[in-house]
Specification:
This protein has a single domain, classed as Alpha-Beta Barrel (TIM Barrel), CATH 3.20.20. Helices cover 40% and strands 11% of the residues. It contains 8 helices and 8 strands. It has helices spanning 3-24, 54-66, 74-81, 102-114, 135-143, 163-179, 199-205, 239-255, and strands spanning 33-36, 70-71, 91-98, 119-122, 147-150, 187-189, 210-212, 231-232. Strands 1, 2, 3, 4, 5 and 8 form a 6-stranded parallel beta sheet that branches. Strand 2, helix 3 (74-81) and strand 3 form a beta-alpha-beta unit. It is globular. The termini are far apart. The relative contact order is 0.15. The model is unreliable at 14-27 and 259-265 (pLDDT under 50).
């Protein structure tokens, strides 16, 4: 047998061993954080890939309820981490990036129908622009149980900025939200999932408690709260099966300790 064939055979055995280990060993415990954008009947062509139609979103929520999940907020997570509250048996966090108007017109009624909560991350300089949430809608959403977080002022990746502009994007977006009647903003979403080693400290200095990335995986109290991992949920191409597989992916990545730092379009 040639050296190449031996190498390929060895690789096949290794992959088989990894697959068997993934399938038969216990899955890790942790809190999934789901990353959505829009939930609407129809959107423009550019947003299609990020939109989950309402009926398919309902199917996903039905599945989560059947599996025993209870939605919590990011603030709930931190309160529990600090011993100030107990979490439900199977907590899950639903997050929505960018602050689209359909989060109010389409998403909010569905969440209320299911008795679920969510966190919406808004781009503050888009508030009131066509297709985005306005201030009245944001204040009503928070009064109805939705947590509001910052997605910066302009949605530009922080990693491409100098320190002064990073501070402006992180600090001023928080201030603008709070000055306009939003409760203290404790949570942040990195635009495009882009972050570097300096940003957690910057967020802590500006009194954020958590930040979400685009990295796949589950979260525990040992997870860096400024590098929380999420499960991206784009427009479903294969129905509920795809949703289940994406949840499984987070478990597998956590189990294999794969840290996937990829920029995404959130």
């Amino acid at each position: 047998m040639s050296r190449l064939k031996k190498w390929l055979l060895g690789l096949c055995f290794l992959l088989l061993a990894v697959a068997l280990w993934v399938v038969f060993s216990p899955m890790p415990q942790g809190i999934p954080v789901l990353e959505y954008h829009e939930v609407a009947e129809s959107v423009d062509e550019d947003a299609y890939v990020y939109n989950v139609p309402p009926e398919e979103f309902r199917q996903q929520l039905d599945y989560l309820q059947q599996q025993g999940y209870t939605t919590i907020s990011m603030l709930d997570f931190m309160k529990a981490k600090r011993g100030k509250m107990e979490l439900p048996a199977k907590p899950i966090i639903l997050t929505f990036d960018d602050g689209y108007e359909d989060n109010y017109t389409d998403l909010l009624p569905i969440l209320e129908e299911y008795g679920m909560k969510a966190t919406v991350y808004v781009i503050t300089n888009e508030i009131g622009q066509p297709g985005y949430l306005n201030w009245e809608q944001l204040r009503d959403m928070q009064d109805r149980g939705i947590e509001i977080g910052s997605h910066t002022a302009n949605h530009d990746p922080l990693t491409g900025m100098d320190a002064a502009r990073q501070l402006d994007e992180v600090h001023l977006s928080k201030l603008l939200l709070e000055w306009n009647g939003i409760y203290t903003v404790y949570t942040f979403s990195y635009p495009n999932g882009a972050y570097d080693a300096s940003l957690p400290a910057l967020l802590a200095q500006n009194e954020y408690l958590t930040a979400v990335t685009g990295d796949a995986g589950l979260n525990t109290f040992e997870t860096d709260p400024y590098l929380m991992q999420r499960v991206n949920i784009p427009h479903p191409r294969f129905g509920l099966l795809e949703f289940k597989l994406r949840l499984l992916k987070a478990e597998v990545f956590t189990k294999l300790r794969i840290h996937q730092h990829l920029e995404n379009p959130s």
